[in-house]
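pipeline stage [seq->struct] | target=ABC transporter ATP-binding protein | organism=Candidatus Fermentithermobacillus carboniphilus | residues=605
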Amino acid sequence: MVNFKRLLRYLLPHWPLVIVVLLAMVFSSILEMGPAVLVRQILDIALPQMNLPLLTRLSLAFVGVALVKGIAVYVQWYTSELIGQKVIYKIRQDIHRHLQTLPPSYFSTMGTGQIMSRLTSDVDSVQQFVGWGALFLANMVIMIIVIGGYLSYLNWRLMLITSVTLPFLLRTVFWFDRSVRPAWKDVREKMGKLTESLQENITGIRVVKAFARENLEIVKFAEKNREHYEANMKRAGIESRAQPFLEFLSALSAVLVVGYGGYLVLTGQMTVGTLFAFYSILWSLIWPVRMLGWLVNMAEQALAAAPRLFELLDTEPAIKDAPNALDIDEVEGHIVFENVSFSFPGDSREALKGINLEIMPGEKVAIVGGTGSGKSTLVNLIPRFLDPTEGRITLDGHDIKEISLKSLRRHIGLVLQENFLFSATVRENIALGKPDATMDEIIHVAKLAQADAFISEFPKGYDTPLGERGIGLSGGQKQRVALARALLMNPKILILDEATSSVDTETEYLIQEALNEVMKGRTSIIIAKRLSTIRGADKIVILNKGEISQVGTHEELLSQPGFYKKLFESQFAEEDVEMALELELGNGTPKQNDGGCNAAFSTSQ
Ligand code: ADP
């Protein structure tokens, strides 16, 4: 009931339109009976009296009724649709806007599929009902009241007898709709599988041919096709079986009208015209009753989907601005982790344990550790994508929880390993955080990020579209566009996740050059995998299973026993830092050498 009220609340702002629709509904329900009433007059008055002028007038009135009813129906349908679309627009907008406030962790725990399904199929169920079903339901109820009222007025005893079948009619439709819905769902699922099989067959056609699998593919497709056929026949069976019942019950009402009504006429208690009017109007009553069963099921579906939508809308962003959040304009870039621990929700293990770390303004810090040691978690705490479970992080002496998210993030440039580029031009992708940036500014940062050269070679330069419909960029190119994007904001703090995979030697060198240039004057925190970056850092932080095991400069760390010294003395140092890290610190098997580190290592020697 709470959900129902909340759904209907979406209709509330449109109350003037709702009133228009309801009035149009009442009006068209009344006019629905117009022809029968006119025929009644013709049969009972005009014909017995041989009154030709009256007959002409009544016949003309038919046209008038049809015209006015047409207008009422137009207003009713158009306005219902208008309200429906407005409501749906608002629901989608609310959900989408709310999604923007939720932290990245929400999306990773919920999964894209779940969220998409809420935004599409759940919104669909709700929209069907709120946008259309609710008004239609109102229309049916109005029709039943108006028509039933008029029929009772014509002859209440006849009305009472004929309505005996109505509850059965309602029940049958209700039951029928219940059983046909899963059948339809099955048909849709089978169709999905059929399409999937066809799509795989087409995209994998080379493999199919190379392995001479054509016959097997034909058999596989035939099987899916048969399943779809069977699901459809099952649905058709249910649908067909319901029809005789519905027809029978409807006919039973008609028989009762004709039988008992005929008796009333014979005994002089009712005129022929009234019987005719009763009979024809009855069909206008049976229709809404049949629709009612269907609409009730629709409402149920909407009510099942509504809690899922509301749950999403009610998810409070775990990370949000404090009531009097500070807006910081200027930042030095002095970051301190004070006893910071972090556990992912629902996970008893600590991804980070008692982290104490001071990063001075302008310092270059390399975070080094094996897979799963907590490097990403550590850097995600700085822009508050995650909040520490214990301890605090300060920026220039302010607890970052007291700084407004917007101003905190404005000072942080983020370049991740996987950088997402939107389906937009290169220029738009770089200007993501500053849409009004001038072309000079964009070219300047692209040059800093070593991206200008390859962008200029594109046929349309900075106006080249990227993404699905545009040019595909290599991993290294993407990273440099992302770097330019981060630099455009002129952030005082740079967070970089060094990618070594899918980058060739030359690109590796170019990225390294770009980074050296852009890190000047900024506090930089790098998840470092290249030996050159590690060696060149002002501070190296070694993370092991969520804890800092060593901190210091390259020289300091080399002069003390520990992992770092071991790493450099080991045979791996010459070959692949990442592999060495995996073996020494990581929990899993070492990654394959991708050749990336060697290149950077040698170029910086
Ligand atoms: P790294 O970046 O060093 O590879 P992460 O910071 O990604 O390590 O992960 C640290 C630990 O936290 C790992 O044990 C990982 O399994 C766990 N972890 C990472 N992300 C999540 C998450 N969204 N939910 C639960 N555990 C996570």
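stage status: PASS
auto-comment: The chain has two domains: 2-314, 335-411+491-600. The domain at 2-314 is CATH 1.20.1560.10 (ABC transporter transmembrane region fold).
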